[in-house]
Every structure is written in C-alpha cells, then in structure tokens.
Write a structure and sequence with these properties.
The chain is mainly α. The chain contains six helices and two strands, in the order ααααββαα. The protein has a two-stranded antiparallel ribbon. A hairpin with an 8-residue loop joins β1 and β2. The longest helix has about 35 residues.
Length: about 160
C-alpha cells in the first residue's frame, strides 16, 4: 500500500473512532487527537500533533491537557529530546469506561444531594402535612431512590478488574 492510501485510511479511522470518543464527553478535537496518538503508537510532540491535525500548538496544548487530566495520555521522556512527548493510554476500554462511570457517579451524587436538600425543606416546612406537600414528598422519594439505583448500577460496571 502506498503512503497516500495509508494516510487516507488513517484519516478515516481518526474521523470515525473520534465520533465514538465524543460520546464520552470529549470535544471533537480532543477525540481526534486521542485517536491520532493511539494510531501513531509512539510519543509525539505538540508540534507533530499540530502538523498532523492542522491545528495550532496552543490548541494541541489545551487538548493534551484535557486528555492528560482524563488519564487518556501520558507525558513521556526520551533521551536527547528537549520537547515534551505524549502518548495515548492503550487501555482504552478501561480508561474510558472508568471516566464515564465516574462522571455519572459525580453528577448523580450532586443531583441526589440537591433533591435531599429539598426533601429536608419539605420535612421542616410548617405545612408539611398538606396533601400537596405529601404528594411532592412521595415523588421526591421516588426520585432519590432512582438516583440510589443509578449509583449502584454504575458501581457494578466498575472495570478496574
């Protein structure tokens, strides 16, 4: 296969797999950058990444920081190279699922806390015995139970094994 064919196929893979990565909450550029690094399978500088994706070094720096914060890339050292090098974490299923699960757990916990605060307001309200507040409290309890079930379901999906 000639270089142009390999490059065209690589670009198609980057575009298509990046769509999957975006479903995990990554920005389009971050997703493309991750897939590029994954396919390269060797450490790259910000300049190399920028040239390959047609983006500025500043854009690459911002995106690489986000990917690093999500544990999707790591900075590596190579003797004689003065620039920072980055490579993709190749345990993609485990890494993405853990990030995704943790985002859901964090968001669910935040929402459950807010609902529990409202529930406490209802219990402390002087007119808490009214049928309208009782009905709201019942619905609120169901919503809190939903968040508890959601939390337990996501914890069972833990892929640390």
């Amino acid at each position: 296969m000639n270089v142009t064919t390999v490059e065209n196929i690589s670009n198609k893979i980057i575009i298509e797999f990046a769509k999957t990565i975006e479903m995990f909450g990554m920005a389009p550029l971050e997703a493309r950058l991750f897939v590029y690094l994954y396919l390269k399978n060797k450490p790259q500088t910000l300049d190399e990444m920028g040239a390959a994706l047609g983006k500025s070094k500043t854009s690459m720096s911002t995106s690489i920081r986000s990917l690093s914060d999500a544990n999707l890339v790591t900075r590596v050292w190579r003797k004689g190279v003065r620039k920072d090098l980055y490579e993709a974490n190749h345990q993609i299923f485990k890494t993405f699922m853990n990030n995704y699960i943790n985002k859901w757990l964090d968001a669910s916990a935040h929402q459950m806390d807010a609902l529990e605060t409202i529930q406490q307001e209802i219990h402390e309200h002087p007119n808490r015995k009214t049928s309208d507040l009782n009905e709201l409290s019942d619905y609120l309890s169901q919503m809190i139970d939903f968040h508890i079930q959601l939390r337990e379901s996501f914890r069972q999906l833990n892929v640390d094994d």
